[in-house]
Design a protein that fits this description.
The protein is of the alpha+beta class and 545 residues long. The model is unreliable at 538-545 (pLDDT under 50). The longest helix is centred in the C-terminal third of the chain and has 26 residues, at 486-511. The chain has 15 helices and 19 strands. Helices cover 38% and strands 20% of the residues. α6 packs across α12 and α8 crosses α9. It has helices at residues 20-24, 28-36, 128-139, 160-166, 205-216, 254-267, 284-301, 317-340, 347-357, 360-373, 414-417, 424-441, 453-474, 486-511, 517-528, and strands at 7-10, 48-58, 70-79, 84-95, 107-113, 118-123, 143-146, 149-155, 173-175, 182-187, 191-196, 198-199, 225-232, 238-246, 252-253, 313-314, 380-381, 393-395, 401-403. The radius of gyration is 26 Å and the shape is globular. The strands form 4 sheets. Strands 1, 2, 3, 4, 5, 6 and 12 form a 7-stranded mixed sheet that branches. The protein has a 7-stranded antiparallel sheet with strand order 7-8-13-14-11-10-9. A hairpin with a 4-residue loop joins β3 (70-79) and β4.
Length: 545
């Protein structure tokens, strides 16, 4: 038996290992080890105080299931800091020869029966036969029920025929490689299932926004929603367990595309931003296209005044005060952590941190300037992406761009992720993403280089910011979602970028200290002289089309 993989003796057949009784008989420490080894497990770094099997739905008890023994299992986890969470497992039983060697890392237990049968209880998404059976069940809009708990597939809109074709029995079904907090299964070249691992009752923002954009708007720069998986509990509580969207074969995340462009610019293999047209720079046209698409996304998300979940709401003075407070608190947390973690910084980063540590006055000046400027002109609050950056956009094989992943920060509660906010918070996130691409595209020694490498990188970044903002602010908008004046737009972007850059400092200190110089530079620039370029805006109250 492999180290840490327990034996599970069952009296019946190997499929009985999937019963709630047998799963609850597994040692808690074995289940805990299995969970923390999964890349989607969102509580790494915390000891698990308790692990309990809540519900088990046997898929192989469903008449529409045509695969090996498998079950959907919900697990309740309590951590050492008192927090708790629920996770969704897809477990399956795979026949295993008794003489087989070590169990694979995705095995939860080695199963033996009184009749001498041997099998592995393991992560079902790793089995091709389970993936294919799951796809066929979804295509039929199937439902499985056990002990009052129902696992149900809802087919959305006109996606039924496309789904049936994409998930036809016997087709290819492979596990995606990009997801971290979820598990993706790609069916052929047409559909992708995002299996949510962390379960929270209520409306899931990725599904909610995907459904809204697919069925109630003309926005076509996000993959259409085809199906939703529901976990329905006896008391009527509904939890979203997954979603199926159209797959985009040959696509690549915009981060990878931008990074290659930034590397070209850093090497000098591209026109200078100060010589020649800006649009000749690598990725400049893409940045402008992203700006136009982002504005269209926000206009779509704020287009239905009749739906309380999507109706735009004017930003109030209280909203502005809350935004200012969030920026100040993010800065205070980062500055306090910089002081405590100075020993992990390089000499140049430490010097930058020391200078920033004395910038409290400049910080409060910037925040108060924003507060005064935004008085009566703060735009609207709408549903927005919530975690917008280059990695959340795909460049298709045809050169178009598609926005994905509307679930927001997975670590935040659903209610917080569904909360309306200024669309310019998404814009600020993308601007910071250009900064990271510019820095990451420079050679590893660039932070200490004495040549023009970094200057070429920052020149590229400034050009991308300008191309994106010019397109975003120049696009025809519907409702008054952003402030009317250029000064108010600049003030709000500066406020959101300040919050974001100090969040980045905290994140990098806790995870990648070698990268902290990137947000440190951004913080200095924002506090010394905000660099947000905002073109003159037409006041919608003035005449004109």
């Amino acid at each position: 038996m492999a180290l840490g993989v327990p034996s599970l003796a069952v009296a019946g057949g190997v499929h009985d290992a999937l019963s709630a009784e047998m799963l609850r008989a597994l040692p808690m420490d074995a289940m805990a080890r299995f969970l923390v080894q999964r890349r989607w497990f969102g509580a790494k770094g915390h000891a698990l105080h308790a692990v309990a099997i809540e519900h088990v739905i046997r898929l192989d008890h469903c008449s529409e299931w045509d695969g090996p023994p498998a079950a959907v299992v919900s697990v309740h986890v309590r951590m050492d800091d008192g927090r708790s969470a629920r996770f969704q497992l897809l477990l399956a039983v795979r026949d295993e020869n008794a003489s087989a060697g070590h169990a694979p890392s995705n095995a939860l237990a080695r199963v033996t029966t009184s009749a001498g049968e041997h099998a592995l209880l393991m992560e079902g998404t790793e089995m091709a036969s389970v993936r294919r059976a799951l796809g066929a069940l979804i295509a039929r809009g199937g439902a499985c029920e056990e002990a009052g708990l129902r696992w149900r597939v809802e087919l959305v809109g006109a996606g039924d025929d496309a789904l049936r074709a994409a998930l036809a029995p016997g087709g290819e079904a492979r596990v995606g490689t990009a997801e971290q907090s979820n598990t993706s299964i790609v069916f052929g070249d047409a559909a992708i299932l995002k299996l949510f691992r962390r379960l929270e009752p209520g409306v899931h923002p990725d599904v909610e926004i995907g459904r809204f954009l697919t069925t109630r708007t003309s926005f076509r720069h996000t993959p259409p929603l085809l199906a939703v998986v529901h976990l329905e509990e006896p008391g009527g509580e509904d939890t979203v367990g997954g979603m199926v969207q159209r797959y985009l074969p040959g696509s690549e995340d915009a981060w990878s595309v931008a990074l290659r462009a930034a590397e070209m610019a850093a090497r000098g293999d591209a026109p200078s931003a100060t010589g020649g047209a800006r649009e000749d720079l690598p990725f400049a046209r893409d940045a402008a296209l992203l700006g136009t698409i982002t504005r269209a996304l926000h206009d779509a998300l704020g287009s239905d005044a009749r739906d309380p979940a999507f109706a735009p709401e004017r930003a109030t003075e209280r909203d502005v005060d809350a935004w200012c407070e969030r920026a100040v608190k993010a800065a205070e947390r980062a500055l306090e952590l910089l002081a405590r973690r100075r020993d992990v910084l390089s000499p140049s980063a430490a010097a930058s941190a020391d200078t920033l540590g004395g910038a409290h006055a400049a910080l409060h000046t910037r925040v108060e300037e924003a507060r005064r400027t935004l008085h009566g002109d703060a735009g609207a609050r709408i549903r927005h992406h919530g975690d917008y950056h280059l990695g959340q956009v795909l460049r298709t094989a045809e050169g178009d761009y598609m926005v994905i992943d509307f679930e927001g920060e997975p670590s935040r509660p659903l209610a917080a992720r569904r909360r309306k906010d200024s669309p310019l918070r998404d814009v600020a996130g993308m601007l910071r993403s250009f900064s990271y691409a510019a820095a990451s595209g420079a050679p590893a020694s660039a932070a200490r280089a004495a040549d023009d490498t970094l200057e070429r990188s920052w020149r590229w970044e400034r050009a991308m910011r300008r191309a994106f903002l010019d397109a975003y602010l120049g696009a025809a908008g519907g409702a008054e979602l952003i402030p009317r004046s250029a000064s108010s737009v600049a003030a709000l972007l500066t406020l959101f970028e300040l919050e974001k850059v100090f969040y980045e400092i905290t994140y990098e200190l806790n995870n990648r200290p070698d990268w902290v110089w990137i947000p440190l530079r951004g913080a200095h620039e924002l506090l010394d002289a905000p660099r947000t370029h905002v073109p003159a805006l037409r006041d919608p109250h003035e005449g004109g089309a």
